[in-house]
Design brief:
alpha/beta, four-stranded antiparallel beta sheet, 29% strand, globular
């Protein structure tokens, strides 16, 4: 972790409607240029934690600080801080439908870029660059409503990447992506990281973690942090991963011998 602190989260808890616990007593520090993967079973609070980091949800108790300033509803009412924070932090939601609302893919790309102090040439250049990166140039005039799930995901990712935020929050970004587009996204994340940007990714694709993160934070099914350690230390602990429902063992019987193999969640198909 770098010495310059970006986020300092102390003892936060959050419940939906005051009844359904989503996070419980979370302590977390994020340094500038950190690459972190959030792992956890479905319902462990990964998406909620990303929403807190994005300033979209505010904890019931505990504190969140961003670059030394309290991140709460009151502080975001300050126009200068709100603009600074919203242009510094970009989030890609797991469900792309909540992120896309313009009448064409190109307008979707334009929407965020027009909030920045960029020249027309820079805006056009970024649109072309990130459309090409995510393979959506041919969709520029299409209405997002009529795109496939994977195409919507690519548009949502391209729109956020084009803003080149200092902090990139990604919620299950490879869900719905084909292998080639997944590779392009991982390469883009590597490029962003080399530029010193902070990237926090929620994922259940454990096999991509070594490429996208140096550090792993595992949320348990009781909504707490179960482990915060290097990617290598977490990923080599198969018993821990299985205990937290991140992999499962599958037995294959060959004649008289049974072999047990670990497999990732959420799904794994076996030819029989």
């Amino acid at each position: 972790m770098t010495s310059e602190m970006l986020y300092e989260i102390t003892g936060i808890s959050y419940s939906y409607l005051g009844r359904f616990t989503a996070l419980k007593e979370i302590d977390l520090k994020v340094g500038k240029s950190d690459r972190i993967a959030l792992l956890g079973a479905n319902g462990s609070g990964k998406s909620t934690l990303l929403a807190v980091l994005a300033g979209l949800l505010f904890p019931d108790k505990g504190s969140v600080r961003f670059l030394g300033r309290d991140l709460k509803e009151e502080s975001l009412q300050d126009p200068a801080f709100r603009r600074f924070f919203r242009t510094s932090v970009g989030i890609v939601f797991q469900n792309s439908d909540v992120q896309l609302f313009n009448s064409s893919v190109e307008d979707e790309m334009l929407f965020g870029l027009t909030q920045l102090d960029l020249s027309g040439g820079e805006i056009s250049g970024r649109i072309e660059r990130y459309m090409e990166l995510m393979g959506i140039a041919h969709l520029r005039d299409r209405h997002p409503q009529y795109l496939s799930i994977g195409e919507k995901k690519r548009v949502a990712i391209a729109s956020v990447l084009a803003m080149e935020p200092d902090v990139l929050l990604l919620d299950e970004p490879t869900s719905g992506l084909d292998p080639r587009t997944t590779r392009h996204l991982i390469d883009a994340m590597a490029s962003f990281s080399k530029e010193g940007r902070t990237i926090i990714t929620s994922t259940q694709d454990i096999h991509i973690v070594p490429e996208i993160a140096d550090r792993v934070v595992v949320l348990s099914e009781d909504k707490r942090i179960a482990k915060d350690a290097s990617s290598e230390d977490v990923l080599k602990d198969s018993a821990f991963l299985e205990e937290h429902n991140l992999i499962h063992t599958h037995a294959h019987k060959h004649k008289t011998e049974t072999h047990v193999h670990p497999h990732e969640h959420p799904s794994h198909d076996h030819p029989h």
